[in-house]
């Protein structure tokens, strides 16, 4: 496939690059050091009109798909991975709302998102099912024109900062949720009664994403906030959430890998020995290691772009590409950040060095659902014609 972007994707990526340089990169170290949710990044992306990436053009958005999401999250992730994650989860939430939006949801959520007035995000994970994010135990019970929701979500990116949360639930049966039963996705407004936020997040990496637990106790949600039909969740998980999430995360971690390569190149060129006048870039074994880093990055970028292009085109064989590209980007980000830690020598080992942050941020990739373990399993299953679940 042709991996050159269309002029529209190119211009949106150029816009994201400009926003990143002027508003996101200058604060990236502070975001990491202070576990600061990047309000400035989200505001700058909103100001540039990028929050409605996946909102249909008829509602004021860009009507874009997977390629643009991957390109933009890579651009942001290269400078501030936490900002890329926050923006990426907003985009995934938007795509989920947009997939089967009712008239009310179009006007109330999608138009506001396109105008940069509304941040949404995804709240699927629960401690009970962990990496098996498609098995919610959060209970959904019908009550007149409303639903009553009870349960606890964990690791909600943009937690307590978003205007709405796309949550997964299971219909109540005999007083308990039935995992594997009737799944539904809802969009939950931030000001709904009964939302209790747990302690703020202080992560090993991705420290600015405000990943928080959310307890829902008897939370009343109007029926109009149901996404699609009741029981549609499996469709959402595999047709919308997975592809958009995989693109956002693969793009973000490819950005981390790119910045690790750039930091390594700068150090190899700059560091020169007094005793020989030789730079690190003159040393053959380091030239070989640097080449291996570059090859790994370009292979991952090629796989990601292939996956995005196939996903956007609705290619019948897109699935293994989509599943593989996030696991592969995760492996590459960790590999390159780790190599950068060695090749950049003692300066990289300084507490909270930029390279050390890359390694910490890269590590999150393996445990973010769908996790690397599950993605590799599912890629094999999809190639062998074995059901994923
Ligand atoms: C920085 C960050 C941001 C996040 N943001 C969000 C968010 O916005 N929204 C959201 O819903 N969630 C989010 N999550 C949660 C994330 O998607 C995972 O659900 C969560 O990290 C899983 O953690 P756990 O401890 O429950 O894993 P566990 O379920 O305990 O798994 C531990 C390990 O076992 C492996 N494992 C489990 N089962 C199998 C199996 N059958 N075969 C092979 N290996 C297996 C997993 O791959 C994993 O590596 C975020 C997590 C992090 C770290």
TrEMBL record:
Domain Acyl-CoA dehydrogenase/oxidase N-terminal, residue spans: 10-116
Domain Acyl-CoA dehydrogenase/oxidase C-terminal: 248-375
Cofactor(s) this protein requires: FAD
Keywords: FAD, Flavoprotein, Oxidoreductase
EC number: 1.-.-.-
Domain of life according to the entry: Bacteria
MF annotations from Gene Ontology: oxidoreductase activity
Coiled coil: none
Keyword Nuclease: no
InterPro entries: Acyl-CoA_Oxase/DH_mid-dom, Acyl-CoA_Oxase/DH_mid-dom_sf, AcylCo_DH-like_C, AcylCo_DH/oxidase_C, AcylCoA_DH/ox_N, AcylCoA_DH/ox_N_sf, AcylCoA_DH/oxidase_NM_dom_sf
Acyl-CoA oxidase/dehydrogenase middle domain ranges (all copies): 122-217
EC primary class: oxidoreductase
Family to which the UniProt record says this protein belongs: Belongs to the acyl-CoA dehydrogenase family.
Protein name, entry field: Acyl-CoA dehydrogenase family protein
Organism this protein belongs to: Caenimonas terrae
Source organism phylogeny: Bacteria, Pseudomonadati, Pseudomonadota, Betaproteobacteria, Burkholderiales
């Amino acid at each position: 496939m042709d991996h050159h972007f269309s002029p529209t994707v190119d211009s949106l990526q150029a816009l994201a690059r400009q926003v990143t340089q002027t508003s996101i990169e200058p604060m990236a170290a502070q975001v990491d050091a202070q576990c600061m949710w990047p309000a400035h990044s989200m505001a700058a992306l909103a100001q540039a009109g990028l929050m409605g990436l996946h909102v249909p053009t008829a509602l004021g958005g860009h009507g874009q798909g997977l390629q643009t999401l991957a390109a933009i999250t890579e651009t942001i992730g290269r400078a501030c991975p936490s900002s890329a994650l926050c923006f990426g989860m907003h985009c995934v939430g938007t795509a989920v709302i947009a997939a089967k939006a009712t008239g009310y949801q179009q006007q109330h959520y999608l138009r506001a998102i396109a105008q940069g007035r509304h941040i949404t995000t995804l709240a699927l994970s629960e401690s009970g099912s962990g990496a098996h994010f498609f098995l919610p135990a959060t209970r959904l019970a019908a009550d007149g024109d409303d639903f009553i929701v009870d349960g606890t979500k964990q690791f909600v990116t943009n937690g307590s900062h978003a205007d709405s949360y796309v949550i997964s639930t299971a219909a109540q049966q005999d007083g308990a949720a039935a995992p594997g039963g009737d799944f539904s996705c809802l969009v939950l407004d931030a000001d709904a009664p009964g939302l209790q936020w747990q302690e703020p997040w202080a992560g090993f990496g991705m420290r600015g994403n405000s990943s928080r637990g959310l307890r829902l106790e008897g939370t009343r949600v109007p029926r109009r906030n149901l996404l699609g039909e009741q029981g549609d969740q499996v469709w959402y998980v595999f047709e919308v959430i997975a592809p958009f999430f995989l693109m956002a995360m693969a793009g973000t971690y490819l950005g981390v890998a790119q910045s690790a390569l750039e930091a390594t190149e700068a150090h190899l060129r700059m560091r020169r020995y007094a005793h020989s006048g030789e730079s690190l870039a003159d040393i053959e074994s380091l030239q070989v290691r640097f080449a291996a880093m570059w090859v790994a990055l370009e292979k991952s970028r090629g796989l990601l772009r292939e996956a995005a292009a196939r996903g956007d085109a609705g290619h019948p064989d897109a699935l293994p590409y989509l599943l593989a590209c996030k696991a592969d980007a995760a492996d590459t980000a960790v590999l390159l950040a780790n190599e950068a830690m060695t090749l950049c020598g003692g300066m990289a080992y300084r507490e909270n060095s930029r390279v050390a942050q890359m390694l910490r941020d890269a590590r999150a990739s393996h445990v973010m659902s769908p996790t690397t373990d599950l993605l590799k399993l599912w890629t094999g299953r999809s190639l062998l014609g074995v059901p994923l679940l």
